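Quick start: what a row looks like.
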Amino acid sequence: MSILIHPITKKMRLSILLIISVISFSELKANDSLIVKLNQTNFQKGDTLSFDCNLSNYHSDGLSAVTMNVWLEDIYGNNRWKFRYPFINGELSGNLVIDSKLPDGKYAVNFIIEKQFCRIEGKIKDYYPLKKGVLCAMFTKDSERFFDTISPAIDGSFKLPKLVFEDSCNLFFSPIGKKQNDLFIKLTTPLDSVFTPVAVNTLFVTVGNPNHLVQADTLKSYTFKKEKFERTTLPDVMVQTIKKKKVEMFDQEYSTGLFAGGMPTIYDGLESKQIANSIDLFHFLQGKFTGLKVDFNTYRFTYRGKTASIYLDEWKMQSNQLFAVNVEDIAMIKVFRPFEGGPSLKGGFSICIYTKQGNYMDNESRKYNFVVHGYTPLTAIWK
């Protein structure tokens, strides 16, 4: 499952996604207080490495709701992998399926407790109190949607309750009762910040044929060094190429997976002002190509009888939610008509809207749409 919630309704408030009371933290003195058990220590490709973690004194040490990082390192090579899980009430069980392409070797499996839990803080720039508050919509990878109304402090700051979700989610903020989205939000996720480990327990496993691991096995000692996992090892590479339009470079940088292929029609919002000067997305797309119809009663797009799937920054959403997207913030629109590829399989019809990001944001750009990374699924692939 993607989110640890009570099965009430999709339109539930974000505040009931997870309610946890955490007392103040204290330092753990001994690493042996963290007990980890593996299902075995010698694995072949395709096997599953299962682990069970237990921290008996979690309550007295104020560690009722923290994060367990599982960081793996190839002892003989330079490869490292990072996974993280919610560690609640001192217990965690997880599985890592060993990919067929993982190199044979001896691996250190480091279990590291971090005090932080997944939470989100933000501040609205140039904020003034909004009578109706701000709507926060959360979209998960499996197309679940959750909504909540937040009331920022007088300085524009706000906090969302602690959340548990797998992989990543998209957070979308919009002012209630206003036609144009003029929010500029600075969002922070403390879980992604630098941290000091509370406890570390390191175990060792081998993958593949042990006869090939003589040199690695002769290594007498291994010491977990957190800095090695934070250091960037790949050098910068400069590539010279033919100068492209901004929208082409944006497409190459921000379109991923199925969104990057196919034969879409692309509308430029970076160097052309056509989109920015439109009333809204519905009026911009109306009549753009033969066969496209816009229903202004239901706010649906159809093309020759097929209803469009709508994506905002590659996250699926309802078409009527596009009113909260300021047309001046749109970098690119990609329209995949049936059988032109794209995210909708079986000849679907898709409209993909991308907002300005990174170096493509200008001084007038707002920021109200974010991708936030959560936790690793309890069964993940180690590759």
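That is the whole record. The two ends are 22 Å apart (CA to CA). The longest helix spans residues 246-254.
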